[in-house]
Amino acid sequence: MVIAEKSDKKRPRGRSLWLYAGHRFVHNKKGLVCLIIVLLLYGAGLLAPWVAPYDYDEQDLGRALQSPSWQHPFGTDRLGRDMFSRIVYGIRTTVIVTIAAMAAGGLLLGIVLGLISGYFGRFADGLIMRIGEVFLAFPDILLVILIAATLKPRVTEWVLQVERATGIGGIVRFGVVDYLVVFGALAIVSWVGMARVVRGQVLGLKQSQYILAARSLGASHGRIIFRHIFPNLLPPVIVLVSVGMGSIAGSEVMLSWLGLGVQPPVPSLGVMIWDNGNIGVLRTNPYLLLFPVAVVATIIFAFNLLGDALNDALNPRAR
User: Fold this and answer.
1) Rounded to an integer, what distance in angstroms lies between the CA atom of residue 212 and that of residue 233?
2) Fewer CB atoms near the end CB (10 Å): N or C, the chain?
3) What's the CA gap between 263 and 176, in Å, rounded?
4) Per-residue pLDDT of the chain (319 residues; tens, 9 = 90+)
5) In degrees to the nearest 10, what's the CA dihedral of 157, 161, 163, 164?
């Protein structure tokens, strides 16, 4: 009783828990700075054609390997291409892959399968969790590499057949297949963690008194799941999405670095790191490697710290 009274004094009267969580997050300087960094980087990626001063493939051998300057803030590469523009377009690649993979895997598959597993239990629970355990038996990045390496040749051949049959060209050349394979492989792997967390939450929530009351009043399964259970899943899901976005961004860069992700001419931060990842570049033109690495590290670091800040704001035990 005393604890409840203290908690009520900390939370302003008349304010919803979501508004209170937002108030706590806004006053968390670390989380707010990370959110601004993520919005700036992802905004620059989404608006790449307007933010980048040059086209990502615009070459000028007369300005090759220029050091950072006012005209080229991140310098130029061996073909005279503006590194700042290429990094902005590389961020766009990361944005597309991370959002698509999280939406398809972590959110769609993870939440739906977690809800089914936790709410209905029995056969559905056993089947979904056993499949998830098979995925967890392999290291995530190795499984993603295996899926991407297996699917890419088959998907490329299928798309080439579609191009020949329809007369539509450029699908493979513009990297559509690379995008599909990368976010498809990441989505297949990324659903397991989300599903396990959602399942655990549902197992606790469905024994709550308000759920039992809804059942006694004849509420359907759909109404109970989407009206009563799903809204209470949002806090941990939001935290997992933030942390998962950083992990997916790192995996996308790793796949491109290994030659299994988005490949030239489409810019990718992983390909830039691979092309310039040698001691000779570090001695003569270190900016070619340091700027892409710094952007990748900033994205992953910002998402991880943002997840911690969201957990502090949304976790009832931290209030």
Assistant:
1) 18
2) N
3) 10
4) 334 444 444 555 545 677 877 888 888 888 899 999 999 999 999 999 999 999 988 888 888 899 999 999 999 998 999 999 999 999 998 998 888 888 888 788 889 999 999 988 888 889 999 998 888 887 777 888 888 888 888 888 888 887 787 877 667 777 778 788 888 888 888 888 889 999 998 988 888 888 888 888 888 888 888 888 888 888 888 888 888 888 888 888 888 877 777 877 788 898 888 888 888 888 889 999 999 999 999 999 999 999 888 888 887 555 5
5) 130
Q: Where are the domains of the chain?
A: 42-53+76-318
Per CATH, domain 42-53+76-318 is 3.30.360.10: no
Of the candidates 130, 138, 140, the one whose C-alpha atom is nearest the C-alpha of residue 105 is 140
Residues 6+ apart with CB under 8 A from 296: 249, 250, 253, 269, 273
CB atoms within 10 A of CB 27: 10
